[in-house]
């Protein structure tokens, strides 16, 4: 017969918000990549915690679910890319041609952050809180006060 290579049956599928996801073994449920191999069963039959797949991360994951950071020793699940947080540690998941992220959204303020956890935007709720979050202090002097965090 024609056997699929391991894990090819778990094709990349689109989640509700049109992001790439993982198709569970019921062929219906699609889960976000970061729900894979986290010790919590999300798929009805547990395909997201499959021992073979989870034993050698990220090599045994479907390729479209993995984003390699600027330092190729590091990787993140694709749903952690362009989330305004520095998941790679070098901001390669937020800034630069490989990430391909859109500009900061309406709930974010664009600046060079002083906090390591952010890359090119800070949450607007941090504006005018009396603390420097941007190198140019624009979060305290320019950015309009927004929703509470």
TrEMBL record:
The keyword S-adenosyl-L-methionine does not apply. It comes from Salmo trutta (Brown trout). Signal peptide: none annotated. Residues 103-141 form the LDLRAD1-like C-terminal domain. It comes from the Eukaryota. The gene is LDLRAD1. This is Low density lipoprotein receptor class A domain containing 1. Gene3D superfamilies: Low-density Lipoprotein Receptor (4.10.400.10). Keywords: Disulfide bond.
């Amino acid at each position: 017969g024609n056997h699929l290579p391991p894990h090819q049956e778990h094709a990349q599928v689109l989640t509700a918000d049109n992001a790439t996801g993982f198709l569970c073994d019921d062929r219906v449920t699609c889960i976000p990549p970061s729900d894979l191999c986290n010790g919590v069963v999300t798929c009805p039959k547990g395909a997201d915690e499959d021992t073979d797949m989870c034993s050698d991360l990220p090599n045994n994951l479907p390729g479209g679910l993995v984003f390699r950071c600027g330092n190729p020793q590091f990787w993140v699940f694709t749903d952690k890319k362009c989330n305004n947080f520095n998941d790679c540690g070098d901001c390669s998941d937020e800034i630069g041609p490989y990430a391909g992220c859109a500009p900061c959204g309406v709930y974010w303020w664009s600046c060079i952050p002083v906090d390591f956890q952010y890359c090119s935007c800070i949450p607007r709720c941090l504006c005018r809180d009396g603390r420097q979050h941007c190198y140019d202090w624009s979060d305290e002097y320019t950015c309009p006060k927004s929703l509470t965090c």
